[in-house]
User: Fold these one by one.
Assistant:
Number 1:
Amino acid sequence: MATLRTSVLNIEFENPFLLASAPPTALVESIENAFEQGWGGAVLKTITPDDLEMIEASPRYAVLKSKDKIIGFQNIELLSHKTVQYWCEGIKYLKEKYPSKVIIASIMAPVVKEEWQNLVLAINKTPADAFELNFSCPHGMPEKGIGMAIGTDAEISSMITGWVKEVATKPVFVKLTPNVADITYISQAVEKAGCDGFTAINTVQGFMGVNLETLEPNLNIDGFSTYGGCSGTMVKPIGLKCVSQIRKTSDKPILATGGMSNWQDCAEYIAVGSDALQICTEVMLNGYGIINNLKSGLLNYLNSKGMNDISELKNIVVPKITSHEELNKKYKVCPNIDSEKCVLCGKCVKICSESEHSALSENNKQIVLNKEKCVGCSLCSYVCPKSAISMKKV
Ligand SMILES: Cc1cc2nc3c(=O)[nH]c(=O)nc-3n(C[C@H](O)[C@H](O)[C@H](O)COP(=O)(O)O)c2cc1C
């Protein structure tokens, strides 16, 4: 029988599922509720110095839907509105009541050594398991020179990591932003500065769209809007890319976050190099109770693969991600059309001809492939409404 127990930097996790720093971890009593329901741990909503101004806008969210399902948020929420003392007492309370749960203190401060170190010194005195440095909030904070303004600058990120490491008595994870050309440029810089691990990714900066009736932004604050942090299913490919890129350049632990909505997403993140998982948007849409399916799904999967724990799944796909140059260009696939399933709708023929290749045609009530013209791109198999096309190696 497989187990979900895992260990990261000697911190014991009863399961690898953590709540990411966000509204579901904004109150001690909410975290208590989540722990009761089975979450392995929580990253607290980002704690800041008490005097850092934090004025929220309303509304805070816009959503992207596919059919009727929400597949992503744009949010412009700021950081925790609770005091440092509230969190220090809260961590102590939670750890006493739930000693087996992991608590990570997310922190952010202005670029002033004393401000970062004061936060660390206060939290050092609590039983929190680790720090997470929020160098990556993409809205509001960068305008004050913090959040993503730190995480897009290797020099400032390294300097602050150094300040924190000087005084921290617990492991330090740096939460990275995907809003850079190359996330490993920053991850390698903070690793050199001494961080113990990474969290990736924070939200992807975006603009959720325009209401074409009113000609106002979808995220409409009294007729105006701003760029915000996108999260949920729509950012998963960006998260998987960033986590695997960091893994290719570092052996340090990675806490993955970005678009996980079911156990399969979580398993994929482990396969590309994650040590544990953090979830926010899916919890905000469906509640803490999703933990039951996450745990049973991942456990069943490990058992079905004959794996004892997630360490056997970790990194498996990383060596299979390479450069375009190194891909085998002699490998080719071509469509195989199941005439029983095909309803001759002509979609594959049209798309193939309008996307350069014209390798498919209809002849005698059959779709016919011209192998000379086919480049094996696979587009036809994705647009077929009847799943009648499969790609076969030639
Ligand atoms: C409303 C909202 C508030 C958030 N607040 C914080 C925060 O205070 N600190 C932080 O590090 N990340 C924050 N995040 C980012 C999440 O922790 C997480 O990294 C991101 O949403 C990607 O995960 P998801 O796709 O599971 O939501 C917030 C995200 C959302 C949607």
Note: The two ends are 40 Å apart (CA to CA).
Number 2:
Amino acid sequence: MEDVTMKVPVRLAVVYYSATGNVHAMAQRAALAAENVGAEVRLRKVAELAPVSAVEANPAWATHARSAASVAVACPQDVEWADAVLLGTPTRFGNVSAQLKQFIDQLGPLWSRGALADKFYAAFTSTSTPHGGHESTLLALYNCVYHFGGIIVAPGYTDPVKFAEGNPYGVSHTSGDHPIDERTLDAMDHLASRLLAAAQARRGLVSEPSGT
Ligand SMILES: Cc1cc2nc3c(=O)[nH]c(=O)nc-3n(C[C@H](O)[C@H](O)[C@H](O)COP(=O)(O)O)c2cc1C
């Protein structure tokens, strides 16, 4: 069988929202890990919905908004383009941030023509407290993926890094305990590589049009 995995790099979209930089750091790490193994990567933040006055009233939020100004803003075509999609959001009352959800809600036209189906998805989050909604946020995000007909790539405990980081549903970080550390970043490397491996394996099973 022709080895299409070697000819065609997997396309990964890392689409995230971050107010104060934790989820941004996780997204950046996943993008880097994927680029290092030859994937084509689009690192995209979703659009801010909060008024400028709210952002500017919070120094950490304002500082991060300025430092991430050069990150491209996600559009639905980034998801359409991708074979694999990593979604990142801070927890908001145990749930997905409005900003990321607003982006997902713009995917309706892609969903209606089946263009979100059969892609590979995984998710990551940051909360401030250890029991503040790690799993509930990831599971809420995955509700959308079920509707897409997407394939969720759970990390489970498939690598020693998962026993250290501890979340089999995706990757999560507790920002109130400590800044982003190697444990979280290693778990992002693992999630990215597992997602890419799943997408690559599918390329090996589904014949690709020649020249792509
Ligand atoms: C409106 C709001 C709701 C939040 N809800 C929760 C929550 O339910 N549980 C929690 O642990 N942290 C909660 N947080 C804290 C953030 O999720 C946390 O600080 C996260 O690490 C921020 O990620 P970021 O730096 O990428 O923006 C909330 C923050 C805001 C502003």
Note: Confidence is low (pLDDT under 50) at residues 1-6.
